[in-house]
Write a structure and sequence with these properties.
Shape: globular
Number of strands: 8
Structural class: alpha/beta
Order of helices and strands: EHEHEHEHHEEEEHHHHHHHHH
Number of domains: 2
CATH superfamily of the largest domain: Dehydroquinate synthase-like - alpha domain
Distance between the termini: 40 Å
CATH class of the largest domain: Mainly Alpha
CATH architecture of the largest domain: Up-down Bundle
Length: 383
């Protein structure tokens, strides 16, 4: 029997090729001054930024968002007197934008609200209006209620989280992803795939997230390899933009699993793209989950969900879970994503990573509690 559930997403979602040109009209009335966060090359979006109907201060973002980067961006926004925030870029830009919008509305320091490594204070006030305009197809950050920040001081990634952090506007234009280089397409695309699979088997899944996550996997199967092979393929880019969007909606309401539990820990230790970390772990963690479910909880509906995922990814209605795992592993190889050791993860850190992963908030959505030994085997396989 289906139990009670709820669903939340961005205040408004606008999707379609070419719709980025509507951004100025969509944010009209948000105030006279705004701060715009972009990637390290703001000139890529100069025409979009100059068309905005407000006085803007542009803050470039390079690399993963950190606590100090959030502090600097908030200081720039306050100095400008920003009444709204726009993030035009990848997941790092959008996560930092959500953090800035929240801090402008609530005051204080990022560590006041950061989970695990910070003080974890509740976020009591609304964010100022925030528009998320993704330029990669991977994180789904435009429709999630958290932002991930790295704290180098603690060697850890952690989240700032509140329903009020959901963007007021998510504008998803696949044309903005066309110039993504192959490595970014691979890492972000595999992250999007992961963010559909983990909610589909999550212990917190709902009928709505099941439908969204399953459809997201279908779009990943249609678009991921094709977008990597030919970045100018607008149809493939559209498939992946949908996959990312649906995955973001799913994870925001059904949570994730051990892949992202690992990724949050490892991402604070090595300078490797989040999606590449997820890609290395996805097949080993899936195998570990399926083995544990069959041994300890064979009636768990997650096993049927894994079979459904395999059918969606392979296009074969009779596909087994193992067929799905092989499709994932083969896709990771085709997209040129290496193991975690090649990314710089020291094998001597395995035990420490495993211990921290077990207590991660993402791991709590995993369909079954994995033992430390099961987590260790999966991590070693991902090296």
């Amino acid at each position: 029997m289906t139990g009670p559930f709820e669903f939340a997403t961005a205040g408004r979602v606008v999707f379609g090729a070419g719709r980025a040109t509507e951004l100025p009209a969509l944010v009209g009335g948000w105030g006279e001054r705004a701060v715009v966060l972009t990637g390290s090359r703001p000139d890529r979006h100069a025409s979009l930024i100059t068309a905005l109907p407000m006085d803007v201060a542009v803050v470039p973002v390079s690399g993963e968002p950190t606590v100090d980067a959030a502090r600097a961006a908030v200081a720039a926004a306050r100095e400008h007197g920003a009444q709204a925030v726009l993030g035009i870029g990848g997941g790092s830009v959008i996560d930092l934008g959500k953090t800035v919008a929240m801090l402008l509305g609530n005051g204080g320091d990022p560590l006041d609200y950061l989970e695990v490594v910070g003080r974890g204070h509740p976020i009591g006030r609304p964010s100022v209006p925030f528009a998320a305009v993704p330029t990669t197809a991977g994180t789904g950050a435009e429709v999630t209620m958290n932002a991930v920040l790295t704290s180098p001081e603690h060697g850890r990634k952690a989240s700032v989280r509140a329903r009020s952090m959901l963007p007021a506007l998510a504008l998803v234009d696949p044309l903005l992803t066309v110039d993504c280089p192959p490595a970014v397409t691979a890492a972000s695309g595999l992250d999007a795939l992961t963010q559909c699979l983990e909610p589909l088997v999550s212990r917190h899944r709902t009928p709505i997230t099941d439908a969204l996550a399953a459809d997201g996997l279908r779009h990943a199967a249609a678009g991921l390899r094709a977008a990597y092979a030919d970045g100018s393929d607008v149809a493939a880019r559209t498939e992946m933009a949908l996959c990312s969007l649906l995955g973001g909606m799913s994870l925001a309401n059904a949570k994730l699993g051990a892949v992202h539990g690992f990724a949050g820990v490892i991402g604070g230790l090595v300078p490797v793209a989040h999606g590449a970390i997820c890609a290395a772990l996805l097949a080993p963690v899936t195998e570990a989950n399926v083995r544990a479910l069959r041994e300890r909880d064979p009636d768990n509906p997650a096993l049927a969900a894994y079979r459904r995922a395999a059918a969606l990814l392979t296009g074969d209605p009779g596909a087994t879970v193992e067929d799905g795992v092989e499709w994932i592993a083969r896709t990771v190889r085709l997209l040129g994503v290496g193991g975690l050791a090649a990314g710089g993860l020291d094998p001597d850190l395995v035990d420490d990573v495993v211990a921290k992963t077990g207590s991660s908030s993402s791991t709590k959505g995993n369909p079954i509690d994995l033992t430390e030994e099961e987590l260790r085997r999966a991590l070693v396989a991902a090296l």
